[in-house]
Predict the structure of Outer membrane protein.
Amino acid sequence: MRKLFIICFSLFISVAGFAQNKKWTLQECVQYALDNNITIKQTQLDEETAAIEKKDAIGNYLPTLNGNASNNWNSGLTQNITTGVLETQTLRNSSYSITAGVRIFNGFRNKKALDRAELSRIAADYNIAKIKDDTALSVALAYLQVLLNKENLKTVVAQNQVTKEQVSRTQELVDGGVLPSGDLLEIKATDASERQRIVAAQNAVKISLINLAQLLAFDDYDNFEIEDTEYNILGEEILNTSPEVLLEKAKESRYDLKIVEQNLAIAKKDLELSKASLYPTINGFFNYNTRESGAPTFSQTVDPNNPSTDVPIGFVEGTNQTVFTTQPNILLQEGNPTPFIEQLYLNDGISYGVQLSVPIFNGFSTRNNIKRSEVNVKRSEFQSEQARLNFESAVYQAYTDAKAAKESYEAAIAALTSQELAYEYAKLRYDVGRTNAFDFSQSKLRYDNAQVELTRSKYDYIFRIKVLELYFGVPATELKF
């Protein structure tokens, strides 16, 4: 038992350690965001709503069937539900009915509602796809920002290490009388400034990690870490594609324009639905109903003690002598109510027919709904046109940004090469006392800034290429880094 406990405990520690030490790759972050991002989940609810709307539209084609049952007590002068006679009584009665209805004609509203529901479903699918692409791109940008901050931190730490070595070297030169003591103070000031930059860089890394974790809906910030991978610049060949070809490809693959086109189609379908209200509607119905009562039954019997009685029926003309006839002496006897089931089939009935409803005047509501729908169509047309212009501008802007990012990256490479040579030359001059600490610090600062700028321009260039690839139709989950 003790060995089993040790093994289980060791496995638990191993799994916990693995979870804490896990480093996320960019592809894992993108997939996790697509599975857990709150915005995507909210958008998926729109898809569920569209599916429900389509079920409603299909249900409009089906007949309706409704049942009704009631049971009540009446006291005083009330109608006997079985005889229809008004009586002073306390009576219980019940009624039951089943009604079926079918829509025969309603201006083709059922067909138009079904078409609209299908348009809504397609629009919801497009919207989800767009949100996923946007989310994947946002995750990639946040991921690259973490990498950029990490690279900046590495650069600052490495720079500070060189500065610390330079402090020791300057101390020796000052002690040897080669350099004045002011140069040592200048180098130490540079060291202090770089240590401040290290703290700022560490904070930037932590904040960017938190931002990325929040984008993933991952709340274990302390144990969240990404893979420290060197990302190369891939996909540069897309810059050889002309902006016109890129735009046409983007129109085919991106969902921005498809969404507004679907919204315009939905607005036009809403206009058709509002116009359908001008047509008459024809409904068919069939109703079966029955009833029963708790009222007692009455039967007629001949009085055994006085079985007959004389009843006057007229007079003899001239003598006015009354003429009598003998009739049975009938007594009414109260009995139990008729059995429940027997009453149901004795008192049942059916009704069926067709109902025509013609809209004549309803306070301008129908006409106003049509005008309101026409306004919405115009608004959607303007939005569609504006979206097209914005989309074209975004594609050309993305292409221009990518070209500029490439030039900036190439310039950063050249600048770093030049600044590195200038720094090496300044270092040699400083070591032999041919230049002062201030000039040397300025040269080193320019070299440090060139390294940071190269890192920034590299990751910016990578991101701009990925944006172009998305416009070119590459799925977000298949972007290569």
Observations:
- Residues 1-20 have pLDDT under 50 and may be disordered.
- The first helix runs from residue 2 to 21.
- The longest strand covers residues 86-105.
- The radius of gyration is 45 Å.
